[in-house]
Amino acid sequence: MTKGRWILKNFYIELIRRNRLSMFFNVKTIFIFFFFINFSFAHAQPYPNRVVKFIVPYPPGGSAEIQARLIGQRLSEIWKQPVIIENKPGAGTTLAAGYVAKSAPDGYTLYLASTSHTISSTLYKNISYDPVKSFTPISLIGASPFVLTARVDQNFNSLKEIVELVKANPGKYTYSTSGIGAGPHLSGELFKSMAGLSMVHIPFKGTSPAMTALVGGQVDFLMGDISIVPLVKAGKLKPIAITTTKRSPLFENTPSFAEAGYPNYETTNWSGIIAPAGLPPEITKFINASIQTALNSPDLREKYISQGIDPLPTSPEEFENFLTKEVAKYAKVIKEADIRVDQ
User: Fold this and answer.
1) Is the separation of the CB atoms in 248 and 330 below 8 Å?
2) Three-class DSSP category at 185
3) Rounded CA separation 60/243 (Å)
4) Looking at 251, 279, 297, which one is the last position of a domain?
5) Is the confidence at residue 41, as pLDDT, over 50?
6) Does 343 reside within a domain?
7) Could you tell me if 273 and 110 are in contact, meaning their C-beta atoms sit under 8 angstroms apart?
């Protein structure tokens, strides 16, 4: 019991004991009075004082959900309250995002936004929310690269060689991705635009079948993600270039697109935490500080880095600026490449 609640209760108990309130209160009204005192004090406790839902727009088991579980567990430890992961996959992440946008802005519904969040708003025409204005950005969590990949038996080893080959044979070469409108697809189309390439996109339903197609020779290249690591270690695939400007510890000898001659090229497979628009500033600040604490702890940083994910806590303002730029960047790519999905 808090000190304030104890004082109030004992004050009125003493007044009632001395019969000074007997003409105004009966047993029933006294019961109701104490009920509302307890209720108001319970709801005045600092955030969070109950379960926090963390909405993930993907099925269980993916790299994004792994990030959510790592940070969610640590936030639960910091807050001493449960943080429950709730998976809501479907419709290019718009199903989950729409659900969160309509939720109460009280800090008890958080959302794992990712690269797809800033793509879907342009790709899907009938969504009910704005990817920035309908939410309160809190912080980035981390980022990893997409990876242009080839088979080990293919006789080229650099981005320069691939560009020369594709330019000499426009429309002949193919590349696979995890699906239309996904981060790898947009990364591939951005590269095609910058390099002036004519290459055919072959979409699959997920990264695994896209990798299998490359290993089996059904496509010439793959724009994948860090999940290619086991096949690289098995000697079946080789990374050619990564899409982040900073090299990845998983691919220490693989240059970035920027290093390989495209200094303005960068895409990231990022994730971050947002909440419904209208989240009180003090709660936004509190959650952001908790994320900073979590991601700056050596053990959690090591867990992220060991999986090829660079921990990137930011301020809410930095994250909002980042989201705005990502939306604009991918909207341009979608328009220029005339990318469409069935609604």
Assistant:
1) no
2) helix
3) 25
4) 251
5) no
6) no
7) yes
Q: Which long-range contacts (CB under 8 A, 24 or more apart) does 292-301 make?
A: 292/139, 293/78, 294/71, 294/74, 294/75, 294/78, 295/71, 295/141, 295/142, 297/74, 300/70, 300/71, 300/74
Contact assessment for residue 226 and residue 63, using Cβ atoms and an 8 Å cutoff: yes
Tens digits of per-residue pLDDT, 102-120?
Answer: 999 999 999 999 999 999 9
User: Tokens representing 33?
Assistant: 């009075």
Does the structure show a pLDDT above 70 at 37?
no
Contact indicator for 183, 286 with CB cutoff of 8 Å = no
- On whether residue 304 sits in a domain, the answer given is yes
Q: Is the pLDDT of residue 40 over 70?
A: no
Angle in degrees, 0-180, between the axes of helices 183-195 and 115-123, rounded to the nearest 10: 80
Q: Do 85 and 118 belong together in one domain?
A: yes
Task: Please give the torsion angle defined by the CA atoms of residues 227, 233, 234 and 240, in that order, rounded to the nearest 10 degrees.
Answer: 70
Residue 258 DSSP SS3:
coil
Final residue belonging to a domain, choices 251, 280, 297: 251
Q: Residues with Cβ < 8 Å from 168, sequence gap 6 or more?
A: none
Q: How far, in Å, CA of 181 to CA of 177, rounded?
A: 10
Residue 195 sits in the same domain as residue 243: yes
Domain count, the chain: 3
3-state secondary structure of 217: coil
pLDDT tens by residue, 215-267: 999 999 999 998 899 999 999 999 999 999 988 989 999 999 999 999 999 99
Domain that holds residue 137: 52-143+270-337
Q: Name the E strands within the chain.
A: 52-56, 83-87, 109-114, 135-144, 147-151, 174-177, 200-203, 221-224, 237-242, 269-276, 310-311
Q: How far apart are CA 309 and CA 276, in angstroms?
A: 26
Q: Both 183 and 319 in a single domain?
A: no
Dump pLDDT digits (tens) for 188-205: 999 999 999 999 999 988
What's 206's domain CATH number? 3.40.190.10
pTM greater than the 0.85 cutoff: no
Q: How many residues can be counted in the chain?
A: 343
